[in-house]
Amino acid sequence: MLPRLMPPPPPQPPVASDEMLSRLEGTLASSPADATEIVWIETRRGQESSGKRPRNPAEPTAEQHETTVLVRVRESGRYGLHRTTADEPADLTNAVRQALAQARLSPPRAVAQAHGGKPAVMEGLHDPEIARLTPARARELMQRLADRDETLRFGWSEGRMAVANSRGLRRTAEATAAWVAVAAGRGPGAGTASAAARSLAGLNPAAVVARARGRQAPGAVSGSVGSVGSAGPEAPPAGPTSVVLSQEAVAALLDLLNHRALTSTSFRLGTSPLRNALGAPVFHPALSLRDDALDPRGLPFPFDLLGSPRRRIELISEGIFLTPAVDELLGLETDRPTTAQLVAMDEAMASHLFLVPSAAGAGGETTPDAELLARADGGLWISALDPLEAYDPGTLRFRAVARGVRRIEDGRLGAALPDLVWEDDLRSLLGPSAGLLGMGSEPVTVGESLFGGITAPILGIAGVSGLVGFRV
């Protein structure tokens, strides 16, 4: 006889912020290191989609509970790191010992100056509605919003972070986040949209569904407008054309730029294509890019991984590259100030990107989305770039599949095209001489992380080439 399937045991409840700090205090008091820093992150994550059958109680839950503890010590000018998922007092003490053992094997290095100041007081980081979500309630919400031939994916997370060090720094914060991705229709001509927010009210899934439906070509169901590799009702452009990228497509390009060119690791290793471009006009003068963890329109968070207060950092201003993310090692190497953007003990990276018109708030302008479509009349609309990859080391060349492609006819979304392959270079696509048509006035925040996202408007660009049909 087969053994009877039993439901998995319920997950242990996350440790409260006060208890987290109490355990960290005890660990710091017993640490023999010259300096000790500890980060404790508790997260609860879930994901559901429309159309799912009821879950069998014996199946693994859709929710995941994760504990991460990071310990860094300094002993005689040497640093050691250790990561663990165990959080009992004895486990934390052992993590300090492990970090000390690593420090003894590491080369000595200079001590970076510690950040001062207190983080901004933030409201609205934690939404009780998200905290009460269960897989069943999330699935019910998705099924209620989705029509036939529509797919919705919905994710949520709740977490808390505690940071403490032997210099007396103590930080705690609790936050929630939710994101939704919608596909209206199937195959070429389908409409897609996504968004992320700290609260369900801010996310407004119904509005995201409406945006996806507005991008769907009439009759865009499986096989109705041609499959990949077929001619379809419309052929790809024969030469350069105007393109309007959705907010989600722009965010994908910014994410590629961030990971390839703006991190402290890419600068320290010399792999960033912008390594020798500091102070140079790299992009179009109408474009500015900032990392702003304090802007409530995104997914704000008050401090970085080691408790340094977050602030607004201008990465690119009027097309001029000002700074990458700078951690302690890069700061010591380049004599530049650190930027309070740590996402790991040994890496800094922008995690709250905003693409804005240059001189925003002092004459900078956006263009109504409808007007931007009119400027690109006769060109193409692209809903999504999926997948998107950088394939040439040391450059910002990329290859992507452009999905949800439609002609722009009389300033509106017109006939659908089959998915296209797009190869281009981000530095030329958005460079000083790019044919920028404008930046939309309705930015959207996207991302599937508890601690950050990317906020971008639609973007119009003339003279885009490299879009071709699939070859089979």
What does this entry look like structurally?
Helices cover 21% and strands 33% of the residues. Helix 1 crosses helix 2. The strands form five sheets. Strands 3-2-1-4-5-6 form a six-stranded antiparallel β-sheet. It has a six-stranded mixed β-sheet with strand order 18-17-14-7-23-20. It has a six-stranded mixed β-sheet with strand order 10-9-8-13-22-21. The radius of gyration is 24 Å and the shape is globular. It has 472 residues and is α+β, with helices and mostly antiparallel strands. The longest helix has 16 residues. The chain contains eleven helices and 24 strands. About 3% of the residues have low confidence.
Please give the number of β-strands: 24
Using the CA coordinates, give the radius of gyration: 24 Å
Our count of helices gives: 11
Poorly predicted regions: 222-233
How do the strands line up in the largest sheet? Answer: 3-2-1-4-5-6
| Biggest beta sheet summary | 6 strands, antiparallel
Helix content: 10-25%
- For the residues shown, what is the average pLDDT? 89
Shape: globular
Structural class: alpha+beta
Distance between the termini: 51 Å
Share of residues in strands: 25-35%
